[in-house]
């Protein structure tokens, strides 16, 4: 192999996305449009270092990659989990050599932008992750450290009745209660619901003491992803037709992910969050999705919010999978190579934005 690096600007969106869509590594957050939308959020200040890898005139890999000055991390991607995306029909040896080549180039870029860590992340519902039968993080084989998390994944290939049986009794009661109270759920246009989504999102975050995400982020999702079906929005309505909750689903081929969500204060008591999640699962199934990633779970050492999310997500059935992360710590160039930011501190900072709700 004779490998050569080209910048993202030297490729085209068509070529980039064609490789992502044909690769077992491909995911929503690897797409060209995703790189564009996260770079257009001023608050994050992300700097793009995405690149492609050529071999004998053929594009064989693309690497979404951004430097986050807030976290001092060079991450794939700077917001939303991705990693190197390689051509599917190369040999295992070519794949290993390409991954090593990619990491070597990432190290050079990290030195240039004075990053203290390189982070890769891979959705558990990509073909590559699902094929890791023994749960081995393949990035460890090229010198990175495993920093994977746990996530709840639901197999939607079962019948609706089987999926219902898999719900906890509490989830079933909540769904029945919401229906009996006149709540309903439906798939809606992202573009038509941006303002209302953001209003409830802002209220939701203020209520929990957190800073809302920038509105540009959700506008980017609506305009860059929804038209192609990579982001699907569901909403719940009460009996008067008033919106009480939203469920934003990222979707790519046979996989989907509970990406973001928000709700009004009455949603928890009414059970509508359970109804909305259930209807989103069924909606994904109808779209041909096999694997639905409900998101991270935290069995141990969790905050109260994380415990609540864990209880909620695991009540819809499914199994625990690995959400693959890999990291490589580097000497801090900004401190003359004498200081390295503690792993736990740095990882919490970057993880808070990858797959963030």
What does this structure look like?
The chain is α+β, with helices and mostly antiparallel strands. Mean pLDDT is 90; it is low at 335-351. It has helices at residues 13-22, 32-39, 92-113, 127-130, 160-166, 169-180, 190-207, 215-224, 267-270, 272-286, 304-314, 343-351, and strands spanning 3-7, 47-48, 51-55, 58-63, 66-68, 73-76, 85-86, 117-122, 145-146, 149-155, 184-188, 231-237, 243-252, 255-263, 291-297, 319-329. It is 36% helix and 25% strand. The chain has twelve helices and 16 strands. Helix 2 (32-39) packs antiparallel against helix 8 (215-224), helix 6 (169-180) crosses helix 10 and helix 7 (190-207) runs antiparallel to helix 8 (215-224). The chain has two domains: 3-150 and 322-351, 3-Layer(aba) Sandwich (Aminopeptidase); 157-289, Aminopeptidase (3-Layer(aba) Sandwich), CATH 3.40.630.
Q: What's the short version?
A:
This protein is an alpha+beta fold and 357 residues long. Helix content is 36%, strand content 25%.
Point out poorly predicted stretches: 335-351
Q: According to CATH, what is the topology of the largest domain?
A: Aminopeptidase
Instruction: Work out the strand percent.
Output: 25-35%
Whole-number count of domains: 2
Distance between the termini: 41 Å
Report helical residue fraction. 25-40%
Number of strands: 16
Strand-pairing-aware structural class: alpha+beta
Radius of gyration: 20 Å
Secondary-structure element string: EHHEEEEEEHEHEEHHEHHEEEHHEHEH
Described by strand count, sense and barrel closure, the largest sheet is: 12 strands, mixed
CATH architecture of the largest domain: 3-Layer(aba) Sandwich
Relevant CATH superfamily of the largest domain = Gcn5-related N-acetyltransferase (GNAT)
């Amino acid at each position: 192999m004779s490998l050569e690096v080209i910048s993202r600007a030297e490729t085209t969106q068509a070529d980039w996305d064609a490789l992502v869509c044909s690769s077992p590594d491909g995911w929503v957050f690897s797409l060209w449009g995703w790189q564009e939308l996260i770079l257009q959020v001023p608050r994050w200040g992300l700097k793009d270092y995405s690149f492609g890898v050529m071999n004998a005139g053929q594009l064989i890999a693309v690497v979404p990659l951004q430097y986050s000055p807030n976290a001092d991390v060079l991450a794939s991607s700077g917001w939303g989990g991705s990693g190197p995306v390689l051509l599917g029909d190369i040999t295992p040896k070519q794949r290993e050599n390409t991954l090593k080549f990619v990491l070597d180039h990432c190290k050079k870029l990290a030195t240039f932008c004075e990053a203290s860590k390189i982070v890769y992340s891979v959705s558990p519902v990509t073909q590559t992750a699902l094929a890791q039968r023994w749960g081995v993080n393949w990035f460890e084989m090229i010198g990175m450290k495993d920093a994977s998390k746990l996530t709840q994944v639901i197999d939607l290939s079962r019948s609706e009745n089987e999926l219902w049986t898999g719900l906890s009794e509490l989830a079933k009661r909540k769904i029945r209660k919401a229906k009996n109270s006149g709540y309903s759920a439906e798939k809606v246009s992202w573009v038509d619901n941006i303002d209302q989504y953001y209003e409830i999102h802002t209220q939701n975050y203020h209520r929990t003491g957190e800073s809302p995400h920038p509105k540009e982020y959700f506008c980017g999702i609506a305009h860059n992803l929804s038209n192609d079906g990579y982001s699907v929005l569901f909403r719940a309505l009460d009996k008067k037709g008033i919106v009480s909750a939203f469920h934003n689903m990222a979707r790519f081929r046979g996989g989907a992910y509970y990406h973001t969500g928000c709700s009004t204060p009455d949603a928890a008591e009414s059970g509508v969050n359970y109804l909305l999640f259930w209807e989103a699962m069924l909606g994904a199934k109808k779209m041909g999705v096999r694997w639905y990633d409900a998101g991270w779970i935290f069995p141990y050492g969790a905050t109260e919010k994380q415990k609540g999310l864990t209880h909620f997500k695991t009540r819809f059935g499914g199994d625990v999978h690995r959400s693959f992360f890999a990291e490589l710590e580097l000497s801090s160039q900004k401190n003359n190579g004498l200081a390295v930011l503690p792993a736990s501190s740095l990882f919490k900072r970057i993880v808070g934005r990858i797959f963030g709700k």
